[in-house]
Amino acid sequence: NAGVTQTPKFRVLKTGQSMTLLCAQDMNHEYMYWYRQDPGMGLRLIHYSVGEGTTAKGEVPDGYNVSRLKKQNFLLGLESAAPSQTSVYFCASSYRPDGNTEAFFGQGTRLTVV
Amino acid sequence: GESVGLHLPTLSVQEGDNSIINCAYSNSASDYFIWYKQESGKGPQFIIDIRSNMDKRQGQRVTVLLNKTVKHLSLQIAATQPGDSAVYFCAESPSAGGTSYGKLTFGQGTILTVHP
User: Fold this and answer.
1) With an 8 Å Cβ cutoff, are A42 and B106 in contact?
2) Mutate to test the interface with B, among A46, A102, A109, A110 (most CBs of B within 10 A)
3) CA separation (Å) from B1 to A92, A101, B58, B78, B98?
4) pLDDT by residue (tens digit) across B33-67?
5) How many other C-beta atoms can be found within 10 angstroms of the C-beta atom of residue B90?
6) Residues of chain B that touch chain A, judged by Cβ-Cβ distance less than 8 Å
7) Which stretches of A1-114 are assigned E, i.e. beta strand?
């Protein structure tokens, strides 16, 4: 059981380049999330999805887009990377956030924009 | 905007002591609260959760207390061990039916250091 898998694990981008981070979960979870974590700070929600085909903005959505075409996958896109987007990105999934079930996290993607 | 925050950014304890990590939340619509542990270089791991219709919930060596009157959440770790050293985050989710349903918001985090 792989749980939540993020690819890639590391990436260096030049300013203005685009890329897509892939999150895959094999637990049939309805909810999926993308967070960014900066040094000394907590996780800030970028976008989230409450089901296949739906997405919603979190706290810091600017500069990012997401898609949930399949239930098991949640993609995070950076159309034009900026140095301010240097961060560690975490994906998570949960069956339901309000039930007695936890959110499972991936191992993170460390992104550096130069 | 509404947020979840922590009182103390760092906490140092001796092995065997009990640890208490606190969290204040401001969203009165919050219905579900979770504590996570994050070790260096890893993603957060679930510790324990509690719903707003409860005041206390116990797990193995951990207890979460919820005081809705003052919007305060705490995590108690009994007989703290060096392996408990990590960053601890509280998170909250609003109740079903609200516009933010499904949104899971994290606090800043507290660094717990356990000295042998």
Assistant:
1) yes
2) A102
3) 23, 26, 31, 34, 16
4) 999 999 988 899 999 999 899 999 999 999 999 99
5) 28
6) 1, 31-32, 34, 41-46, 49, 51, 89, 91, 93, 95-96, 101-109
7) 4-7, 10-13, 19-25, 31-37, 43-49, 56-57, 64-67, 73-78, 87-94, 103-105, 109-113
Please report which confidence band the pLDDT of residue B108 belongs to, taking 50, 70 and 90 as the band edges: confident
CB atoms near residue A102 (< 10 Å) = 18
Residues in chain A, overall count: 114
Tell me the pLDDT tens digit for each residue of A82-104. Answer: 999 999 999 999 886 555 567 88
Amino acid, res. A64: Y
